[in-house]
Amino acid sequence: xxxxxxxxxxxxxxxxxxxxxxxxxxxxxxxxxxxxxxxxxxxxxxxxxxxxxxxxxxxxxxxxxxxxxxxxxxxxxxxxxxxxxxxxxxxxxxxxxxxxxxxxxxxxxxxxxxxxxxxxxxxxxxxxxxxxxxxxxxxxxxxxxxxxxxxxxxxxxxxxxxxxxxxxxxxxxxxxxxxxxxxxxxxxxxxxxxxxxxxxxxxxxxxxxxxxxxxxxxxxxxxxxxxxxxxxxxxxxxxxxxxxxxxxxxxxxxxxxxxxxxxxxxxxxxxxxxxxxxxxxxxxxxxxxxxxxxxxxxxxxxxxxxxxxxxxxxxxxxxxxxxxxxxxxxxxxxxxxxxxxxxxxxxxxxxxxxxxxxxxxxxxxxxxxxxxxxxxxxxxxxxxxxxxxxxxxxxxxxxxxxxxxxxxxxxx
Length: 412
What we know:
single chain; five-stranded mixed β-barrel
């Protein structure tokens, strides 16, 4: 019988949840598309993946889940290629995969707890992703994700620690904590712990864990304990990805973000002063409604001001039923041009950073196909080896040069 195929689109949280889904579906002839709805492009990509899955696996059951399916379940159920649609809460429940309902999507806003995490390994993935938080209580004017994920809810520390112990015991040397709004972790739990407290408990109770990494952080919510761990704990990888979105105060206000441009710059200055090797990543949106050329230039300047070497650039994509979609829109061609300029600035900053790493020795987590991986600061590195180390090993590599957006090296 054909093995199930799990297609994960979008965020690292989806990757983590896909592994749980893999453990639930067993050896069925099925393709599961775990969808994303962060942009219109992501929704189109989901539909393309569904059509491709039907062409590639004509006899398989096609099941769609994830944020796009949660937000528009009937739209996906109407696709002729789709057999079933399962909601974001239901997808982590064993009973959902045993049921036969063509449409199994509940009210995500009524979900108050996280689902059990059943996956015990991550197959061929070098690093393991552990969900510690889901949902979002904020309502950024451009975003539909709260309607796909529901309100914020946290996984108790004991369950997180037990899961990480299991993953480490199965051979994983690096774990990534994921969530929809990771830095909002904890207020719904007894004692209202912050994310820093969770990270400290993980490091203390799982001493055999070699490398811990965090997914996207809201800069305004980095608590003092988390800051100290990011800058002073060697097992914390020196890589911080910030959800900045813009570098102009008026645009940030219209996005309903909770930080200012100056606060973004200040948190990066503090991080870099305490741990100079920290690499900064950020999400930035080009062409948000009402954005003038001067406002855009403030965002463009943020790449240098915050030393952003991992820039994730998105042209603004109007989403139905969001406040931003009702604001005066920037012309699509202008959005596209501004996104290209942001990417160009990000590449220049990344190129200079990569060049600064030539001559250093990096502890690289080996990934597929066995001669490539990522250094602690998340620089991608490739090297020639007569014998490829196994996926998930940590290999010492002397960086000898650069090739486009990656580093090249040789075993140290």
